[in-house]
Amino acid sequence: MAHTDIMVLGAGIVGTSVALHLAKRGAAVALIDRAGPGEGTSYGNTGIIEGNTIFPQVFPSDFTALARIALKRAPEANYHLSFLPRVVPWLAAFRAASRPSRLIETARFMRPLFARAVAEHETLSAEAGTERYLRHDGWLKLYRTDAGFAKQSRELELAKEYGIANVPLDRDQARALEPSLAPVFRHAVHWTGAVSVSNPLALTRGYAARFAAVGGLSLGGDARTLHRAGSGWCVDTAAGPIDAGDVVVALGPWAPDVLDGLGIKLPLAVKRGYHRHFRPQGNAALSRPVLDAETGYCLAPMEQGIRLTTGAEFAARDAPPTPVQFDRLLPAARELFALGEPIEAQPWMGARPCFADSRPVISRAPRQRGLWLAYGHGHWGLSLGPATGRLIAEMMTGATPFCDPKPYGADRFTQ
Ligand SMILES: Cc1cc2nc3c(=O)[nH]c(=O)nc-3n(C[C@H](O)[C@H](O)[C@H](O)COP(=O)(O)OP(=O)(O)OC[C@H]3O[C@@H](n4cnc5c(N)ncnc54)[C@H](O)[C@@H]3O)c2cc1C
User: Fold this and answer.
1) Atom 18 of ligand 1 has which residue's CA nearest to it?
2) Would you call 11 exposed, middle or buried from its count of C-beta atoms within 10 A (0-12, 13-18, 19+)?
3) Is 15 helix (H, G, I), strand (E, B) or coil?
4) Mutate to test the pocket of ligand 1, among 18, 33, 203 (most ligand atoms within 8 A of CB)
5) Nearest atom within ligand 1 for CA of residue 47
């Protein structure tokens, strides 16, 4: 049987970053996935490295918003009725975590990771030669109404406190940055410090190539074959069984497929999301991602075209796609930007792995020696992959972690 120091299960942006950080620190590392690096959830996101994020997504607090979602009229959210009974406890916890005091607490707990989001990507990209995929011109949040903009006041106050750069703009100032946007909005905020990615798949592939260059081993294999082997762990791969003393589960929305069988049942839900690429009409163009905040979708310029991404869908991870949100939001998107023909026949679907408190788990697994967890990054896995990789690599190699890992401990669910 082949032997390595550490196996990392899952080669999304999180697992690939974990593997690269460990290999850079001299460990012998095998990165195992059943597909190629970055082909899962990490393929299809909006491409925003959101160092600016302060508040997480929240459970709607006003009746009108809830009613629109319940009646399946909301562009920003959808659900499968048959799935709701399964997700009720998670939704209750999500609602509790959406209270103002909890949001402030979440912002504080998450700040150390977000503060490193851009810098850690820049470091890995400089080493991997993937800087060409990073755009350093921030992103825009647009507000169609004064009331919608006013709701951001607390976020802008906190941004000042945390020193997070942003520039509130009126419609004309925003259109000076993005002339192809139609004047259908009243306010914008330019989060100038954020970075966006023109091809998230190529970025993860670039980090995986760097991992190979520093001696890492990428293997095809099914993580569900993980089992105890003596004092360590073994996985069956296409190249035969391999064992290691330590294993990191970085399987994003698929983590429970492995962890449930080991008795580690953390309350993960998925928020499914879709994207579709469109050709711009005529000379229409975007330089950076744009959020139409009150409608709940993003437009992001990608190498493949203008990527339109949707908000959350509460449904079983593996249930057939139901991309009904496109019908609800396309009129608003076409009003804002001259979208032409769709490029693919069908939208892409992914599943954001989400804990109700909007924090990932980056820690040792409870009660399983040599098992580590790095998953549940929800809406922010692209942003936080490299920072997560650094943090867990520092924890595993006995270095001083760059931040206190306690808020991301699995034990917050088990104590
Ligand atoms: C529409 C949408 C927009 C988003 N926009 C943003 C954004 O702008 N910014 C941001 O920061 N985040 C964004 N996200 C979130 C982000 O994409 C995710 O948080 C992130 O990709 C999760 O990465 P991961 O590595 O944990 O999971 P994944 O990328 O899903 O990786 C898990 C890997 O595990 C592998 N795997 C699964 N099962 C097995 C098995 N049995 N054996 C072997 N391998 C297995 C998969 O093949 C996959 O490669 C968005 C998500 C969506 C859906």
Assistant:
1) 381
2) buried
3) helix
4) 33
5) 8
Rounded to whole angstroms, the Cα distance separating 11 from 208 reads 8
Distance in angstroms (rounded) separating the CA atoms of residues 154 and 139: 19
Alpha carbon distances (Å) from 129 to 91, 104, 114, 195, 260: 41, 37, 23, 16, 38
**Distance (Å, whole) CA 75 – CA 294:** 9
Answer whether 0.90 is exceeded by the pTM.
yes
- What's the gap in Å between 216 CA and the centre of ligand 1? 21
φ/ψ (deg, to 5) at 340: -95, -140
* Antiparallel, parallel or unpaired: β 134-135 and 195-197: antiparallel
Distance CA 391, CA 384 (A): 10
- Minimal CA–CA distance to 274: which of 90, 79, 41, 115? 41
Confidence of residue 59 (pLDDT cuts 50, 70, 90): confident
Please, how many CA atoms are within 13 Å of residue 196, restricted to the half-sphere of its CB? Answer: 25
| Cβ count near 92 (within 10 Å) | 12
Query: How far apart are the C-alpha atoms of 15 and 351, rounded to whole Å?
Result: 16
Instruction: Give nearest CA residue, ligand 1 atom 15.
Output: 379
CB distance 41 to ligand 1 below 6 Å: yes
Please give the full DSSP string across 145-159, using - where no structure is assigned: SHHHHHTTHHHHHHH
pLDDT one-digit tens code per residue, 177-204: 999 999 999 999 999 999 999 999 999 9
Probe target for ligand 1 pocket from 197, 379, 383, with the most ligand atoms within 8 Å of CB: 379
Pocket flag, ligand 1, residue 10 (CB < 6 Å): yes
